[in-house]
Amino acid sequence: MIHRKLSEATWREVRAAGERGIALLPIGSQEQHAAHLPMGTDTLLAEEVLDRATALLGREGDVAELVRLPALPFGHSPHHLFAAAVSLSAATLGAVLDDVLDSLATSGYRRIMVVNGHGGNDEMMRLAVKRFALRSDVTVAACSYWTVTAGEGDGERPDVTPGHAGWFETSLMLAARPDLVRTPVPARGPVEPPPLFDNPPYPGLTVERHGEWARVGGSTDDASSADAERGRRLLDARAAGLARAIRAFDAATR
Prior knowledge:
Blueprint: E1 3-5, H1 11-20, E2 22-27, E3 30-31, H2 41-60, E4 66-68, E5 85-86, H3 90-106, E6 111-116, H4 122-135, E7 139-144, H5 167-176, H6 212-215, H7 228-253
Parallel strand pairs: 1-4, 2-4, 2-6, 6-7
Antiparallel strand pairs: 3-5
Helix pairs in contact: 2-7, 3-4, 5-7
């Protein structure tokens, strides 16, 4: 397998890779992550999982050429503007994804995968790839990194996965970028009444109530028990799952 970065390739290499390879686009956000995690957490984690996955595939050597795009660092984050965020509107994010995907198709790529790191991007990302496949002769895939996992004893806690600035993301950041985690990680007690975005009153409902993110202090759950070793297992499981997803996408679309 050849793995290269788009920003380091020549145009002829880009064209040649597009004929046989898969373009990989990580997308994230810049937004508040409580008092202990950096604004770029979602972007950093999407990049970390993707880079670990491509490293695994590079050792196994059974996948077509992979071309890693620079991460799109801005996402749809209006719900975090109560503190701080750099947010694109839903229409703007959709338009940006449309333009990036169209540019890749014009540059010769026929297989593209988007890897997302921010929950607020998920709906726009999936709509963008569906629209893209309708107007272009391509095959395109999309996932959020926390949804793909090898599921091999990774210490999962589904009740707080992925959450926001809580146990899951903090554990991952302690493993990936401990230099950026402010310590001690503050504890967060129960919030009453529980926020409806995280605890809908009935299964299948999506509920948003004005002011909830500010009321809960910018995080979904208590991060004080986050652990770097468990974070490493969580990252490894996501990377292994993403590597398997890329391999399956490659095999199904050759």
